[in-house]
Amino acid sequence: MPFFRRRARFFRPRRKTGPLPLKYVLLLTFIFFAISTMAGLWIVNKSLKPALLAYAESQTMQIASFVINRAVMETKVEDINNVITVDPETSLTRFDTEKIYEKLGETTETVITYLRKMENGTLPELDSLTDFDIDLEKSGKGKGVVYSIPIGQATNNVILGSMGPKIPVRFHLIGDLEPDIETNFKEAGINNVFMEVNIVLKVNVQVIIPFATETAQLEQRIPIAMGMIRGDVPRFYNRSGSGVQPSILLPVDE
Length: 254
Description:
alpha+beta; six-stranded mixed β-sheet; two-stranded antiparallel ribbon; elongated
């Protein structure tokens, strides 16, 4: 009997554990909520980031193009006869490079001045952009233009539209303005050519939204001279498109 009594001590029933203490429940709930929130934000960010970047880039290009066009309005388009000379005997066209590059420097300087004012928030023309919610106070800190876009418009959500939370967007210029000269010729009739001299401006812009950034290049063509060049009427003209050359009779000595 004493043996069985001693063995019985090893088979005592375990005490039933009660519910978890409240502090452990709160801790586990907080950890689960934090993980779920981070996972949800990651999924939403992954799905919305391309649409937000594309929309923000489009809006940024519109603002920058507007500023450049306002700067160009201060420069006048030259008559084509002021920048080219046509030799009446050989029909050779010569460009007045001095005038062209003078115009290039003048236009580039004006555009750079406007873009710097835009970044500093001191450009008065920004007030006329009523379609954009530009924050002039934040833009005036010199870190680029700051504006907001409704998340409904960025995601093309018909129900939300202009409602919903607004996403802040900031953009600023990267590097220097790259100017270049471009000439275009277009036939106009059998003896006329329409000629256009353009300044091509390229500027890199960095678009910044929460948790993402994108770099885009804006290219703007500005005409500085255009006009019609009239030449001699040709003795032979074939624009039938058939490729068949007409037969030309040579005079025969009698």
